[in-house]
Amino acid sequence: MNTTVSHELLFDYFAGRVTALQRETIADWLRDPANEETFYRCLDEWERRKPQYIADLTAALPTYRAFLEQTPPGTVAATAEPPPTAVPFQAIRRSWFSRSGLIAASVALALLAGGWLLRDHLLYQTIQTAYGETRSLQLADGSTVVLNANSSLRVPRFGFGKAIWGEKSRHVQLTGEANFAVVHTPDDQRFVVHTAKGLDVVVLGTEFTVFARPRETKVVLAKGKVLVNYPTSARRTEQLTLKPGDVVALDSGGRLKRATTPKPRDYAAWQRHEFIFNNTSLREVGQLLTDNYGLQVRILGDELARQTITGSFHAENADELLQAISDVLGINVVRHDQQVVLNDNNA
């Protein structure tokens, strides 16, 4: 159903001033995922206009500590009428924790977890690509990002590039692989790409590629200068400055390797549906097919798995890439759904 929902109606909905029919209209409207962004933007605007109560913990904690220090354990403040039955303090405490306390704690934890999850969905947007899909997007600051297949980028819905805790910066979280072209801002805002393994890329304005998958995290700088923050075995964070052509990789064991390449943009050739191999083993090619297309690749024989391939290949999909590999190496490729078997024709 094609339904139009105005901002005024959404504001009334947040304030609890809508009818049952209007509530159903909004529910139908929200079934279209394209309307989620508008919904959350209106919610943020409404909450800014009508802020809810926020406890002043900074002021309350000293008061509460003073109360605890002045009130001996086990004492109860005097009342005008004493309680009809005296109950030992220990019994009260044990009863509260065994029944009411556990119930209250469970409810509080459930509300806290639910509120935190809603907060995360409200504040951040996640852009994802499927297997075999690449996607180009422009961020609020004008920077462009091209996501490779089977990747995701988490970005703030609001305030991107605005002052947060006194610092103006742009933060995103990457899982998978992406190429970034970051614009320089007049006030020199940092642009930070976070990865799951604790390796962060800090830039001002430059072009680079980040690969962040379970087996390895890699940064390749094509233009400009970036800082790479990475964890060490001593549980410290070290910083490394990269120049164009530098390649830094952090393996699954936390070991950092640094190399150089004369053609850093080759690492982002997948944007053009090109795959550039340079003495790349067939085992590594099989891992690429898994990462980008979700294929489960089985290579018959260690000798075949160690065989290398060099060259540039254009492939719009997995089948075209498999055909190119088969032609160049002279091997047999059998695919059934997401299962692929590679074997030597001469075997």
TrEMBL record:
Q: Where's the Protein FecR C-terminal domain?
A: 274-341
Classification via InterPro entries? FecR (IPR006860), FecR_C (IPR032508), Ferrdict_sens_TM (IPR012373)
Keywords from UniProt, A to Z, are: Membrane, Transmembrane, Transmembrane helix
Record domain FecR protein: where: 126-226
Gene Ontology molecular function: any one:
sigma factor antagonist activity
Q: Where is the signal peptide?
A: none
List where the protein spans the membrane: 100-118
UniProt keyword Transmembrane helix present? yes
Record keyword Membrane present: yes
Full protein name? Anti-FecI sigma factor, FecR
Show the taxonomic lineage.
Bacteria, Pseudomonadati, Bacteroidota, Cytophagia, Cytophagales
